[in-house]
Design brief:
The protein is 52% helix and 7% strand. By secondary structure, it is an alpha+beta fold.
Length: 304
């Protein structure tokens, strides 16, 4: 929809909107996470290690789930394609799961309560996701399927977006996206598509605020926010997934679910198990770290 923030007239330089917004998404989430760690007494000197670990495992996990779930034969013909980032193909779920597991055990290694850390950081992930789905909107990826019988679409943005237009409809969903051919990475062009990127962005932003309020005002045991998030997000993602139509979605062996819907069932089940398992526990003591004591110790890199 808007593939470049800036592109030189001679084509010698271009700044992709997608990449810039992903950097912004990560920076926003990390900044909010930095202050929330302090509030529960976790020194942010572990943050650099968490960031590096999350980036590495996140990319690996996202690539792995994409190929195993959507391009299985291609992956097994050449497993090294996993490391060729130029080929594209990432599944957010895989990245989140891999990064979360890695950071969970990293926290235990640092003798930090991993549940307390996860509760502080999970809402920040949804904040990052909200920005990240705007990046998908700009690139034209993760878009919705064509809206059947969409009548009288009228542009709401005119020529503002070089890759397409936001259009209004006379019936639900009332707002849709139309992508121009040859611009961005959208697979469907010149048809009104469900605005799935914006739906998920708004849903993730809502989860950020709801979980943040719960974390601040209604948190009764360590792991509570993680459990709620693992139940709520799969419901959001599975609902939106039914309207996705951007690429190979992948189905399970029964042909009933897309890859993400199948993973959603597993994630939500784990969330319920965590909630039931930990609801009888109590919050570990928390002492906020003063700002003067919260400077990140860069010597943490020596331990990587």
């Amino acid at each position: 929809m808007f593939p470049h923030l800036y592109k030189a007239a001679d084509g010698s330089f271009a700044m992709p909107t997608y990449g810039a917004l992903l950097v912004l998404a990560f920076a926003v989430g990390a900044t909010v996470g930095f202050y929330r760690m302090r509030k529960v007494g976790i020194h942010p000197d572990i943050l650099p290690g968490l960031i590096l670990l999350a980036i590495g495992l996140g990319i690996l996990g996202a690539r792995l789930l994409h190929f195993v779930g959507a391009e299985t034969q291609r992956f097994f013909r050449n497993p090294l394609v996993l490391f060729n980032l130029g080929t594209g193909g990432m599944a957010v779920y895989g990245g989140v799961i891999a990064a979360s597991i890695g950071c969970f055990f990293w926290a235990k290694r640092k003798k930090v309560n991993p549940w307390k850390l996860s509760d502080a950081l999970l809402p920040c992930f949804f904040l990052s996701l909200a920005v990240g789905r705007i990046a998908c909107f700009a690139a034209g990826c993760c878009h919705g399927a064509a809206i059947p019988n969409a009548s009288n679409p009228h542009s709401l943005t005119g020529d503002f977006f070089p890759g397409g237009s936001v259009v209004g409809l006379n019936e639900a969903p009332f707002i849709a996206f139309v992508y121009n051919p040859g611009v961005g990475v959208g697979r469907l062009t010149d048809v009104a598509c469900y605005p799935t990127q914006i739906w998920e962005s708004l849903g993730a932003l809502t989860l950020f605020f709801v979980l943040s309020w719960t974390w601040s005002k209604r948190r009764f045991f360590d792991g509570q926010i993680v459990a709620i998030g693992m139940i709520a997000y799969p419901i959001l993602r599975s609902s939106i997934e039914a309207f996705r139509g951007d690429s190979i979605r992948g189905v399970d062996h029964l042909g009933l679910f897309s890859t993400s819907q199948f993973v959603s069932v597993l994630v939500a089940s784990c969330g319920v198990w965590i909630f039931l398992r930990r609801k009888s526990t109590e919050l570990d003591p928390e002492t906020a770290i003063e700002e003067s004591d919260a400077v990140v110790d860069l010597e943490i890199f020596d331990d990587l």
